[in-house]
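Before relying on records like the one below, remember that each one covers exactly one chain. Contacts with other chains, cofactors or solvent are not represented anywhere in the record.
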Amino acid sequence: MATLEQNAHGAGGARAGRFGLLLDRPEWLGPLMIGPAVLYIVLIVGVPFFLALYYSVSDISMGSRTLGFVGPKNFMSVVATTKFQTSLKNTFVFAVVSQVLVIVLANVLALALLKDFKGKWLVRFLILLPWVAPISLGTIGWLWIFDSIYSVINWTLQALGLVTADTWPMWLGIPYLAMSSVVAVHVWRLLPLATVIILAGLTSIPQDIHDAAAVDGAGFWRHLFQITLPLVRPIMLVAALFGIVFAFTDMIVIFVLTRGGPYDTTQVLASLAFFTGIQGGDLAEGAAIAVFLFPLLLVVAIAFLRVARRSEVV
């Protein structure tokens, strides 16, 4: 009996020893550590992506049980529509305008958070709140803020005497106001992420550089544009890249606030793909619209990463 226990203990110790030796080998430890993340990305991103590619060259719909190969027919029919062209233009307007505002405001907030002042923890909490809170709940709150009857913005403007009850702005009913509204909510949502990223870049700048600039007599604006911003430019490009990807692929804000209206003036490619494929039942054309985003994002990502790399070299 003792011999069996000793043999079992020895076998278990040998297995543990072999496992320990395996973890000590860099060529095995790396794949073991990164394996779960790769598996997660493959299952959550890779499988839906290849399924969308498969659907985009087929004639699948909600009611069909079979798939037929149609080649690039779905892409050609989608691209030729006025709704797609309008959505493509709106996507670029929505992404570019929102990211310019996000980067500018994030730099302002990050520079302010570098200073010590009373209530700094409260300001940090309020800045991070939009990113922590569920975006659907936050957008529903903004839906009430932009409401044509109960809008707190309109009540405030009326109390200040800037508008009357007969001239209240229809924030989600007029095309240019609707686009401005969804851009504002998107900026509100992404501003915390960009602020944290840029703040990390600002804190990584050695204090010796700031001290040397102060000794040389550099003022605030010269210090900002000739020292701080050039050094943090690669970090800003990373923040902008994340923001561009979110703006191109996210549709929650537009879905909750306007559903693409009025008259498709706030419709973007992500929301158009959802309405076409899921609500419209045409999975093939919906997948073709969604897949169309991939080369756009790939070009944008490569361009941003190259600029960021050149900035680091310089």
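Residues 4-13 have pLDDT under 50 and may be disordered.
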